[in-house]
Every structure is written in structure tokens, then in C-alpha cells.
Amino acid sequence: MNELAARLRTGYGAGPRHLIVVTAAIVLAGWVALRLAGEATAGRMLLWFLGAVIAHDLVLFPVYATADRMLRAVVRPGTDRRVALLNHVRAPVLASALLFLVFAPGILRLGESTHLAATGQDQRPYLARWLLLSAALFLLSALTYAIRALAGRRQVSPKRSERA
Question: Which residues lie closer than 8 Å to 112 by C-beta, 6 or more apart?
């Protein structure tokens, strides 16, 4: 059995569990595509999906890859490599950007009259709430970084005193 798994890993590039999960995902996507094929709006959904793929791959990916490279250039690892600052910046940026993407129509007040008619609520609070939530995400990440950095320093300090 180990020989078969090793041959699969060599030929496929990953283990058998990975192959099973990827196959299941493809089967699920195919099932969803077949279910949607009979829908009257299938063409519009396909067009939206292709537009989203193109917008992501040709526009968004280069933008956030460039932003990540610039962030790496600004946030150089210091002498203490146990606690990486880079991920403590990446996480709230990603969460904030994802929240903006999901709630962009409300934040930018697009379709304000339609939203008001459908829900009876105004879109004005969306921007303030998104900014407050983003600030809270950054604050939480900064506090987590500070706690981890202090804990890392406390672990190092007794070792230094033992050497002296």
C-alpha cells in the first residue's frame, strides 16, 4: 500500500486524500452545472461567472500580488523571526477587502432606492460600519501581534540570563 501511495505521490504530485477531495469538488461542480443548465438565466449566470474569473485573474490578482510585494518590501523581518508581522497585516487587510467586496453596493450606495424599497432601511450606515469593523480588525490584529511578541521576548529573556 505504501508503494502505491508513493507512486501516486510521484506521478500526481500529492497524496490520495488530495486526489479524492479534488475529484469530489469537480463532481460537485459538474452536478451544480447540470442543475443550472436548464434554468432560464443559465446564460446570464455563465456570463457573470466568466466575467468574475476574468476580472479576478486579469485585474484583481495582479493588483493584490503587487500590493503584497510592496507590503513585503515595507515589512522586513526583524531580528525576532518567531512572530511575523507580515501576516498580522495581511489578515485584517484581506478581511477588510473581502467585506468591502461583499458589501460594496451598500458601502458605495449603489441602488439606494431599490434597497430602500426592498428593506425599508437606508444605506448610509454601511460605510461607517465597514470602517469601524475594519478598524476593529486591525486593532485586534495589532493586539495579537503585541501579545505574541511580548510572549516571545519573555521566553527568550530567561535563556539570555542563563548564558550570562
Answer: 122, 123
